Amino acid sequence: MIELRPLHPVFAAEMSGVDLRNPSSRDLLEAIDAAMDQYAVLVIRDQQIDDDQQLAFAMGLGPLEDTPAVVDAHLNRLKHREMVDISNLEVDGSILAADDRRRMFNLGNRLWHSDSSFKATPAKYSMLHARLVPPEGGETEFADMRAAWDALPEAMQRKIEPLVCDHSLIYSRALLGFEAFTEQERINFAPVPQRLVRRHQGSGRKSIYLSSHIGTIHGWPRPEALCLIRDLTEHATQREFVYSHRWQVDDLVIWDNRCTMHRARPFDDHRFKRDMRRLTLRDRAPTLEQPVS
Ligand code: OGA
Ligand code: MN
């Protein structure tokens, strides 16, 4: 029997009583969508699935992103090109060298972000499956952007509601001092516009669409834009809006990028292996083409 247990006062729940090794029934997929609409982060433990089974399950939920934005894609360790390698591992399974460009680039996941907000049509759900986890650290934190919107003073809500931001991977990596992009990557990662406030389709609630990928607000001087984005990010990631997930092997966590942010926490990544694999569902359209009110 499918059961739901809340993990946090404002969002996030654990779903139990499901086995994702076999093709999922319509009923299960609908139960997951309904739980996602309400909780935005869903933890499903003890799922011994391989890449093929994770892919089959994800495809049941909706259309996938098929070209993950990574650097050095020719060094992909995984067999499905839709699958994003969230690990500190080399193609042969050893730990990446400290100065490896992929490691530098992946450190961007430590910043609060929403997956693929730098793509014209951004991400809907992401699902991350844990294959190897370090003994300590390496948690993933999630923050609820609907609760953050609800808690904003009305004057601030009015001020930010019409704003449009530019998002790019180049902006988020610049925050960490990573600027080693090739000419082709600069073209691939050119900024895209997204609404700062959106209405979450599943719950009808408004949500702040924040991400470390934001580099400016249309019509604003950049320093002023980045001050506002920083204030909003501090507001939205206060502990009361945050659920921290402590990983166990075979956890599958699904989150809704339309109304949450997340970030990775550090661990001793020179000594321990952390192997996680992500699939990402596409949203239905660019946010500017989605109704806000
Ligand atoms: C991701 C991500 C965080 C983590 O998979 O999109 O940001 O904790 N992961 O690995
Ligand atoms: Mn991410």
Structure description:
With 293 residues, the chain is of the alpha+beta class. It has a single domain, classed as Clavaminate synthase-like (Double-stranded beta-helix, 4-Layer Sandwich), CATH 3.60.130.10. It is built from eight helices and 15 strands. The strands form four sheets. Strands 1-2-3-13-5-15-4 form a seven-stranded mixed beta sheet, covered by helices on one side. A three-stranded antiparallel beta sheet has the order 12-6-14. Helix 1 links the parallel strand 2 and strand 3. The N and C termini lie far apart (37 Å). The model has no long low-confidence stretch (mean pLDDT 95). Bound molecules: N-oxalylglycine and manganese (II) ion (MN). N-oxalylglycine (OGA) binds next to strand 5, strand 14 and strand 15.
List the main descriptive attributes of the protein structure presented here.
alpha+beta, 293 residues, Double-stranded beta-helix, binds manganese (II) ion, 8 helices, 7-stranded mixed β-sheet, 3-stranded antiparallel β-sheet, binds N-oxalylglycine
In brief, what are we looking at here?
By secondary structure, the protein is of the alpha+beta class. Helix content is 25%, strand content 24%.
Q: Approximately how much beta-strand content do the residues carry?
A: 15-25%
| Uncertain regions spanning at least 5 consecutive residues | none
Rg (CA only): 18 Å
Tell me, rounded to a whole number, the average pLDDT: 95
Number of domains: 1
The CATH homologous superfamily is termed: Clavaminate synthase-like
